[in-house]
Amino acid sequence: MTNTLAIVQKIKELYPNPQTELVHGNEFQMFVAVQLSAQTTDKKVNQITAHLFKKYKTWSHLANAKLEELQADIRGVNFHLGKAQRLIKAAQYVIARHNGVLPRKLGALVKIPGIARKSANVLLQELWGISEGIVVDTHVTRVANILGLTKHKEPVKIEQDLMKLIPKAYWRNFSGAVVLHGRYICIANKPKCYDCGLRLLCPVGSKLPTR
Known about the structure:
By secondary structure, the protein is an all-alpha fold. It has helices at 4-14, 27-36, 42-55, 59-63, 67-73, 80-98, 106-109, 117-128, 138-146, 155-165, 171-184. The protein has 11 helices and no strands. Helix 1 (4-14) packs across helix 11 and helix 9 packs across helix 11.
């Protein structure tokens, strides 16, 4: 049976203070970067926002953006046409409903156009250190399954499993750490099992021969 506590404690030892790799200077920029990051690498998002944030500096700038112009400005991220529409609607919503300040509750964040539960969790944790849930992206999905923490593939069910297994005090660390672990160590096509600090706790890694 998977020793969940040992796993999350080891993860925190390996990644004591995981931080998002999305470059941002304030909550507006983080919000935009998170929206753009769906199905797109953080590296690509950072390349786009390096120029984008010089042009769109506030919620008002984004709310009043011309759709076709914004679509051209974020070309390079996947699904840029739809993302541009949602960014404008989101900015208008945040101004109208929250006076240009992001709410710090998951239930309120998911009402913003383009923000689902995963993105809301990222914003809460990265901006304010608030954990109402656990971030489940493709990396967390893969690593959690490999570690035996879930058997599901659907993000909602995976999050439910993880929230039941993992003490809440570890939710923030687990979310950020496992994203990085999946990105650089437990890589989908070529996992670096012999470089993995979780190897002895992993149902897959622990069975590998010593080299």
